[in-house]
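Objective 1b. Sequence-to-structure analysis of Butyryl-CoA dehydrogenase.
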Amino acid sequence: MSEKLLKGGEYLIKKTDADDVFTPEDFNDEQKQIAETTDQFVMNEIVPHIEEIDHQNFDIVIEGMKKCGELGLLMIDAPEEYGGLELDKATSMLVAEKLAPGGSFLVAYAAHTGIGMLPLIYYGTKEQKEKYLEKLMTGEMLAAYCLTEPGSGSDALGAKASAVLSDDGKYYLLNGTKQWITNAGFADLFTVFAKVDKEHFTAFLVERDFEGISFGAEEKKMGIKGSSTRQVNFDNAKVPVENVLGEIGKGHKIAFNVLNVGRFKLAAATTGACKDALGEAVRYANERKQFGTEISNFGAIKEKLARMTAETFASESLVYRLAGLLDGKIDRIDKGIENYYEEYQKAIEEYAVECGISKVFCSEVLAYVVDETVQIFGGYGYSQEYPAERFYRDERINRIFEGTNEINRLLTPGILLKKTMKGELPLQKEAMKAMESLMTPSFDEPEEGLFAKELKILEDLKTVFLVTAGAAVQKHMEKMKDEQEILMALADVAIGIFAIESTVLRALKIYDKSNEKKKKLLEAAVNVFLFHEVEDITRAAKKAAYFVEEGDNLTMLLSGIRRFTKYDAAGLLENQRLLADAVIDAEKYIF
């Protein structure tokens, strides 16, 4: 990786060199070995039992988690001083991706190693880590995270659960109900959020067998049926004072910082699920015959497979670019400092925008890929006898948990605006420059070179974002945070730009090292993805313009959007067919 590292959100105003992005092609031998180990584990130990897991045979899940512990897959993020591996985020995301074919098992794994263990790792005392961490790393204990309540979902700080100190000062007595708690049916340790004296939002480490804890029945969910989801009830539950996690009244830091990690891990997991679904879809298309030939020979099916492949390539490119940003920032922290994990969290928080983007974009790519998988299966896609039906049910939750996609969309421009107001990101100055370019006719000759037109449209789209965002802020000023429809439209532009840039830079970086066939496939994937993504960004930008302006100002803004969203997608049909034929021949994701 280069020494150059953009700050969070800077991708909108600065150029990134292809050599400065991390891609899957950069994995080292250790990462490849861990990926292979994970792949073998899930294919041999989990996939054969998916039906039983979906019927809530949690013994298989628990046994699988213990085997993960034996393989070292539960200690990837744990510190070395407590016996963990403390590997980079790219490896952590790679394991999440490789576990995706395990369906609901991945939900249990992700909850345990992510929101289950990370609060303890980041905020636990030495004594707390010594007591619990080794058992969590081996799978002897399994973890869960209790934040959501029946009356508070996205509004986490609106929680009603309370905690009061006992008369003898030895315990906090917890009262309240937590809902939608993953792993609740078998978890041994819960990170629970409650308000001390109904005021100070605080986290607690709560063991399953503490007095005063009870559990609701398993929720009857639409998908991820093989994951345990229950209510957890606290009735004067006795929690020793030494099990307060972090500081009294600082629970919000734990809650929100850990969610950033959950978001980018979910992005990696959904990318893996895209690859799994695409493989099933193309194998079925090669087997299913209609009108005397395999349906994979039909142009209508090839078009689907091509776009599924291109979108998955974009998702994968975005995920590992983010991994590189996070690892680059974390690597700059001195591990010897006393407040290492405080600085570690700041490093992750720096890319809160990109974490939210990854969650939204990758979960929605999976939604598209799975929907088309069901369509390719046709009537059989609606039958539980075939995997497409489970993919469809399981996919839907990804747009809800780890912060709904609406919340993450609102966070994207919201954080960018805060950074601007703090002077951390010069968006206002860049917006003024963008407006000048909007008003100035261009006589530039078309640039030449590899992916030249894609790099040109990328810069033009950044201009579109800056102009529309600038117009919105100028109109609404400090009230901008309340204009949710505008914020969400701007978010779609910003999300699309990050996805396009990640895709193009990856293709640029690996192009010269690729053989002629792969070069053509890279060109095809970029072309197919950009055609659709530029159209989506254009629509979002126009919507923002109509929301913000009227009269002559609206006419000028729309004219600028038209001018700066022109992408020459020549060769689209040929590229679609090239991508489709390659994936049909391979019967799997080809990059």
